[in-house]
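assembly run, all chains below
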Amino acid sequence: MSAFHAVFARDLRVAFRRWSELAHPLIFFLIVVALFPLALSPTTQQLREVGTGVLWVAALLSSLLSLDGLFRSDADDGSLEQLLLSPAPMTITVLAKVAAHALVTLLPLICLVPVTAWSYNMPSAALPTMALALLLAAPTLSVFIALGAALTVGLRRGGSIVGLLVLPLTGPLLIFGTRATDLSINGEPPTAPLLFLAALAVLAVSLGPVAIAAAVKVGLE
Amino acid sequence: MKLPRWFHQLGSPPYVYRLAERLSPWLGGLGCGLLAVGTVWGLVIAPPDYQQDEVYRIIYIHPQTAYVGMMAYVIMAVAAGVGFVWRVKLAHAAAVSAAPIGAWFTFCALCTGAIWGKPTWGTYWQWGDPRIMFEALLLFLFLGYLALRGAFDDRDKADRVTAILAVVGVVNVPIVHYSVEWWNSLHQTSTLLSEGGPAMTSDMLIPFLIMFAGFTLAFSWLLLRRLQAEIIEREGNARWIRELAVEGAP
Amino acid sequence: MTEFLQMGGDGAYVWSAYGITLAVLIINVWLVRAKRRAALRRALELSTQTELPRKQPTVRRLQ
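ok done. output:
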């Protein structure tokens, strides 16, 4: 477990050293959220209807921006190979990296959602559900993003392809997340989709790191 | 562990190439024949449906192409997995060969499904219908696999990295299959495998099954032919390839 | 005959579905053949190149 803590703490420290880069996904999120009403010129009611979907998609797209921090920068300076060679199992290392990434990238995004949801005239009763749905989706999302980053770590210019790989995988997350939010907007209990998100999170976190570690190993060969 | 002889033989490109050369004509001929018979039977001989009248006849192509697409993905994932674990180049070649064919069949399934949906459900496409969504995801997985492949210069690395993607994505196949049971969907539940036997009369069931067989054999022909071409590409400089190229050239 | 083509009014749906399927099959056959031709051509080039390392053959001669 100490290997986990070591990698986790190190990744956090590295992320905070470049804390201005942490802000990029957040700013991107805010811009996308602002662009939609500009493009749609919606009424208050229409805004409320599209709010769930727009916020979810914007969050998904924004979270892709932080990809490089996961593996590529470590691969560039050789520290990723060091991690591979270290006695700690790569799956634990990957888990630590994914956790750090989720904490540093997704958590701030989730904090921004209530404010933006309010700006989309979404009823405040639905906000806790939306936040909870995002929190439950976050681990799975992190695992998918990490998988995309790991698969492309061996490429010189892998950036554009990762979106292609990761975004389709997030489809189910989107479906369940928005369904949970919509249910709570209508006043119904959102337990079913939330449970699905939780189940997906458990599966992703337990099985994902194995695939991610394998991808990193192959990518660096 | 002493492996059986056929396992080693299947790792030899010339052996597999020649085996494919012998099998292909049968697969292709039989496949074509079955498809022809099934199409005529399904379009002309089979009676109109009680509920859907004539438009139900899409049932003789849509489930079959969807099934072949899913089977192609499983083949791709298994082959890629075998190639990854046991470092068998031919297995990777098989995975690469299955991918584009599977993508096309999945695309076909989505198209025929959409066309069938309009007169029966009232809509071409339903966002949020689980089976449609996961089938679309299957197509994206194929496309992602092919795109990721193309991004690598080193073929061996491409093989191994995309193998991971293929294996991870295989969970989608059972999800597509069971999605109609797990969630509310516009799709009906399985006609063939439900309890108490198939929910179809035999005059519709027979062409239904014939088309399954026909499409499967057609897919097998396409797969073997593609695998042969892939072997030629990969073994480029070998003598047996050179001889093949000389005798095959005009 | 027209009754067959009309398919009870849903002719457009049935025939477009079957048409697309047929097209996909034909496209796939063509793509496979094209890949094979290209691979054979490449193998032929490779074989002539390695046999004549210094000279670019202007005429390809086959045994």
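The first helix of chain C runs from residue 2 to 6.

Residues 2-51 of chain C form one domain.

not gonna interpret more than that til we talk
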